[in-house]
Each structure stands twice: as C-alpha cells, then as structure tokens.
Amino acid sequence: MANLNQDGQREQWGSKIGFILAAAGSAVGLGNLWKFPYMAGKNGGGAFVLVYFIMLFLVGFTLMLAEITLGRKTQLNAIGAYRKISKKWSWVGALGVLAGFIILSYYSVVGGWVINYIVKSFSGALKIADADVLGGMFGNLISGTTEPIIYHAIFMLITMIIVIGGIGGGIEKSSKILMPGLFIMIVIIALRAMTLPGAVEGIKYLLVPNFSAINIGVILDALGQVFFSLSLGMGCMITYGSYLSKDTNIPESATVIPLIDTGVALLAGLIVLPAVFAFGYEPSAGPGLLFITLPAVFAQMPLGTLFSILFFFLVLFAALSSSISLLEVCVSYVVDEWKIKRKVAVSGIGFAMFLIGILASLSFGRLSNITIIGGRNIFDSLDFVASNILLPLGGLLLCIVVGWIWGTDKAIKEASNDGKIEFKLAPFWAILVKWVGPVAISIVFIRSLLG
Ligand code: PFF
Ligand code: NA
Fold it and tell me: Which InterPro entries does the record associate with it (predicted)?
C-alpha cells in the first residue's frame, strides 16, 4: 500500500537520467542561488569558499554515496532504512525527518519572496539600478505582515500539489526540462555580472581566500552549507535512492550530483558578489543579497525585464524541485510507516509547516525583537538548528551506521551492483566513511561548543 504502483511494486524513477536530474534538482535550489552567496559574503568570501571545498571533499561526496546506497539497498524511507539496518538506530531517520520539517518551513518563506519577485518583474517595479533603493524595496517586502505570508502560502501549496502527484509524475518530468534551462540562464547572467565595471573586486573577494578570516564560526557555517546544499544528513538522498533500480551506477551519480551543485553555487556567487562590488553594496548584507543585486544587474542588461522574469521563474523552479524533496522525506515516512493516504499526509504536514513558516516570516517584521539562539531571530535560529546542528549530526550518525553497523564491505557490494560495475575508490571511500567523516564532524562540533 505504501508508495506502490498498480502492479504492487515500489514506484521507481522512469530512467537513469531521471534520477540524476531529480536528485540534482533536490540539491540545486535556494541553497545555491540564495544562501551560498550570502553565506560567502557574511564569512569573508574566499575563506568560506575554501573551507566549503575542504568539507565538500571530506564529507560531501562520501555521504552522498552512503545515502544513495543505503536507500537503494533497503528500498525504504529514511526511518525505515535505518531500522532495516538495525532496530536501535531508526531514531536517526526520525531526526532527519525533523530537520526536513524545520527546513521547509522557512525555505517556503524564501520561495514566497521569489514568487513576489516574479510578479514585480512583470509589473516593471524592479527596473531600478540603484542597489540601495532595491535594498529598501526588499526590506519592505520581508518586513511586511500579510504580503509575505500570502506568498509563502502560495509556495507551500504548489509544493504540496506536486508531491501529491507522486514520484514519476510530478517530480521527475519537470526536472528534465527546467534544470538545463536554469543552467544556461545562470551562465549568461554570470557573464554579464562579471563584466560590470568594478566587478573584479567581487570575483577576487569570492575566489581569493583571506586566511585570517577563517574561524570556527566560518567552519561550522561551511560544514552546514555543504549538508544543506547537497541535501545530505536528513535522509533525502536515502529516500530518492530508494526509488532507484538495481542497475543504476551509484558511484557515478554520487560524483556527478555534487559537481553540478557546486558548479551552480559558484556561478551564483559569481553573479551576486561582482554585482555587490560593482554597485557599492555590502557583501555581508545577508539574506537579501540575491534579491537586491540581481535586479540591479538586469537593469544593466539589454532585455533586462525579460531576463528578470525568466530568471526568477527558474529560481522558483529550482526552489520547488528542492522543496518537493524536503516534503517527500516527511511524507514518504508517514505514508510508509503510518499507512495513511498520501493526500492526507501531504495536507497535514504541509499545513503544519506553513504555520511554523509564518513565525519565520514575521521574524523580519513584527517579531524581529524575538531572538532565540545567539542573538539570531526566529528565521535564522531555525536555519541554524537545522543546517548547522541537525544535518551535520545526521551525517555523523549516517557515517556510524553505514561505516560501522551495516559495514563498508556490504555497502560497497551494494554500491558496485555486486561487483558488476567499477568502484575504484571503494577502499578510499571506506576510510572516509569510517574515520575521516565522523572525526571531522565531531571536531567541528566540539570546537564550536567550546566557542
Ligand atoms: N539542497 C537544497 C538547496 O540547496 O536549496 C535544500 C535541501 C533540499 C536541503 C533537500 C535538504 C534536503 F533534504
Ligand atoms: Na544546493
């Protein structure tokens, strides 16, 4: 009954490229386009990017492979998958579902901003080249009460409707067309941004590390960003992997997906930061960077309005192909384990997320005086708890379960399709899962607890 098709078999991706696109669709999202540039801006630019790359190589690829393999082996949702390996560890999956729940509640608020910017592009309201005026306009939107909540509701509803459509129907089909479209657009816009007068400073800021800017806060942010951006640490790739057929090449997928994701994040950085410098803005300005600098770039482009409409549509699409995966993790669990109808699960969970999202949205306006963790408002606190604590913790536990409980020999057997395909780096991967991943994550955690 749970996630089955008419023949009583588990639903599967329609094709190999379908899975890669859907998984890349989950990975590529607001994390790349909106969050990466502002996290880099906040954490010293090149210093952040350098640490990001180190974390990507230490844990990103490793855990991507571990999650997909665990999912395909067990053919179950995040909690079911852990339980199948060992009854004692099913709570790790529950932790992931909780992280997904928290993330989507505020992710949807940002998705709402994107929809609002599509509307603004159509009306011509964004045709402004002055970054300060654009900053004011963005501030007005997010500090409002009803307007951002209505757009947040619209984003959440679209997500829910797609997820009700199920795996092959909703999620896979749309990714095949829109992902390549996004990539082409973002390259064109990056070329424009990088050739603005004064843009070189921005490129340098992003790519040349200033080592003195590296501290434990930067390292924790970079670690959290790797998990967030690759959709790791909460069982999302376990869930997507569970719909894979036994002949997929997992080592290849686990390499390609992080590469695509990182490429898009860097391109987004190469749009936003050069524009920040070209327009004399502050790199550390925070969550508004994308929304403030992009329109300023479009205003300097021929056919700017058209670009603006198309681009924000593609951002929306990227956000949706991620938000559906966040919702799917929660829904897949509830449908599999509680045996309730997909529609009911989606409605209930979606509505609960919507309510929490309202608080996140209001934390830029009416509730801005409420601070929870280390002076962060509600929105930033939710993001901090999910990205910087729950996801890396989920990743640490994943390493333990796959590396030590299930065992790397069995995992490698599954990942290589019983030795039918090549997995050259298998011995190296085993060391990374068993030792390097857990040690690296623990060190960052302990160091940041000590302050
Ligand atoms: N990876 C997505 C992004 O970069 O926007 C966000 C995300 C999706 C995080 C799915 C976690 C997840 F399970
Ligand atoms: Na991402």
Answer: Na/ntran_symport, SNS_sf, YocR/YhdH-like
Locate the ligand 1 atom nearest the alpha carbon of residue 29 and give its number. Answer: 5
Question: Smallest Cα–Cα separation from 147: which of 177, 97, 181, 109?
Answer: 109
Over the stretch 330-340, which tens digit does the pLDDT of each residue have? 998 888 788 89
What is this model's ipTM?
Answer: 0.99
**Pocket of ligand 1, candidates 102, 105, 179, 231: which has the most ligand atoms within 8 Å of its Cβ, to mutate?**
231
Mark residue 67 as left, alpha or beta (left: phi above 0; alpha: psi -120 to 50; beta: remaining): alpha
115 close to 155: Cβ distance less than 8 angstroms: yes
* Closest C-alpha among 156, 202, 142, 85 to residue 379: 142
Sign of CA dihedral 391, 333, 79, 321: negative
Q: Is the pTM of this model over 0.90?
A: yes
Look up the CATH number of domain 16-450. Answer: 1.10.4160
Residues of the chain with pLDDT under 70: 1-9, 11, 13-15, 166-172
